[in-house]
Amino acid sequence: MLLEIKDLRVKAEDKDILKGVSLSVNSGEVHAIMGPNGSGKSTLARILSGHPGYEATGGTVTYDGKDLLEMEPEERACEGVFMAFQYPVEIPGVNNSYFLKSALNALRKHKGLQELDAVEFLQVIREKSQLLEMDQSMLHRAVNEGFSGGEKKRNEIFQMAVLEPRLAVLDETDSGLDIDALRVVANGVNSLRSPDRAIIVVTHYQRLLDYIVPDFVHVLSDGRIVRSGGKELALELEDKGYGWIDAAAGARA
Amino acid sequence: MAQVAERHGTYAADFEVFRTTPAFGPEWLRDARTAAFARFLERGFPTSKDEEWKFTNVSPIASTEFRRVTGGPRVTAAMLEPFLYGKTFRLQAVVVNGRLSSELSSLSDLPEGVTISSLADAMTAQPPLEGPSLKTDHPFVLLNTAFCEGGVFVHVEPKAVVTEPIHVVFVSAPGAAPALVAPRLFVVAGEQSQCSIVETYAGVGESAVLTTAVTEVLLGPGAMVDHVKVQRETATAFHLASTFVHLYRASTFTSQAITFGGRIARNDITATMAGEGAECTLNGLYVADGDTLVDTHTTIDHAMPHCPSHEIYKGILAGRSKAVFNGKIIVRPDAQKTDAKQTNKALLLSGDAGINTKPQLEIFADDVKCTHGAAIGQLDDDQLFYLRARGIGQHDARNILIHAFASDVLNGIAHEAVRARLEEVLVEKLHLPS
Ligand SMILES: Nc1ncnc2c1ncn2[C@@H]1O[C@H](COP(=O)(O)OP(=O)(O)O)[C@@H](O)[C@H]1O
Ligand SMILES: [Mg+2]
User: What is the ipTM of this complex?
Assistant: First the structure.
């Protein structure tokens, strides 16, 4: 088991958001987390990545046999956890390729590998940027600065391709993408599917799952996973909308 | 006045001694010095009641007896090495305690059209150049005028294009006693000439020093001057500097001023757009820690039409350091079509650091564009988290963001080696892990 979440409770600024989430993910699997806005999808992604604004008040998260919640964000990244942000932040003054090189070398150093020099790094970059049909000029701009919504998302997956994580959490990577960009990004993600890697795709819409076909689908509502199933569950949600979940949640409350 | 004179007794005594030396200069200079010193005694050091000095308490300066240095310790090339930039500059004028050192300078094979000489010689040989520095009432400029013994004069002939940059190094090297150092740089760029000047203020020794630096740049019509000022004196230094830039028609002045502090570092920079179509860029970065106070007062005086001015000032404040930024833009009635932009940002790295900042727009023309923005803040948590979430350690992440903050000023420095060295100094200064 690569990731095991047990009865996880999370709060932010005194608001209880996740109210007991359990999820098991094996290497090689793709899990989709769906759910209405405000159900806690991004909170789940953030607590996995170590965001300082979110606090686990109960439950456990075990990643590769270790207590993930005890680890600093950079340690998690070095151990192979990657989060593609829903809203990637702009960092003026920091060159995109300098940033990526620092990140890649931090990971390599952690693994006891030699840091890449400029030439070797460029080789990696060239190969991966083709995968995502990236315009080379994006590499020379400041991190996400002035990028369109779609460019930001593409840049996230590009980073994923370069950093080669063992667990990737993609938070609404589909939003802001037109259909062509969606296809490119999804192809990128699919090419990164591997028996050694698990991917958690967080999405509001089923559309992305036409391209990135999940092994499992979970529905999150009001901080709880209310249903789990195979890929057909996504289609059912597409058909019925989220209304029935809210109704079910209402009935439970 | 007698009382004030008494309080400044050591200055008066030193001035009397200086008066008897040849360096006191020819008649016009003797008169200028005497008038300046009398005026200084009359007004004394500024107090917090002076509007321009409200937040900068100079009482540690007023209460110290700074003496004119006559000998001073021997400064060797090895001592200067950390302040130079390898072999970047072939043309280098080194001024120790206000006097040009022929031993440490390298000024052979000057490019065509440029003269670099001791300002003392220039002042003796030439009729007086009535620059704005001789008309001001600024107390530290008055002190400089009274005590300045040399410094550097750079003259670029009309149409001369000097591609090789000129490095002027001012070293403050006090002996056992606190020292008064009065360096001066005077640059005259003739019509349609072009040159690039780097000023570095270095400090060696441990005693306190009062450096009353004056830099004056006159740009003839169509002249272009690229200017860098690096201030890196010791932690016990008081750097009280005034820069006067006078731009005639269609001339261009670009400046990046990098200040690393001392106890008090005050920069008064005045650029006067005295001709139509002149363009001026005044950028600056100051980095302070400990108990340093960095005060920047800039004035861009738009006297003529069609002059763009650009100004970006950035401060990085750690420890208990304090900063003052006052950016004045004057647009006089004739200065239609002025386009003035000013940005002032400070990054506070500790809860005890602070800044007083004030834009001051005085606009008397109607068809003008003037924009200004100020921002004070800490490192951005979301940016820090983003970097850390990609595996970059907390210290490195902070480091990257601090460099990014400084980058738009540092990147304006054309000399790669200077930029690289300053990045290192930034890291050392803030004790960032490199
Ligand atoms: N940092 C925070 N502080 C306070 N409330 C938050 C914070 N983050 C999220 N929330 C709240 O928690 C709920 C779930 O948010 P989120 O995880 O972003 O949902 P989703 O991604 O499913 O739309 C929302 O009601 C949101 O307002
Ligand atoms: Mg979300």
Answer: 0.96
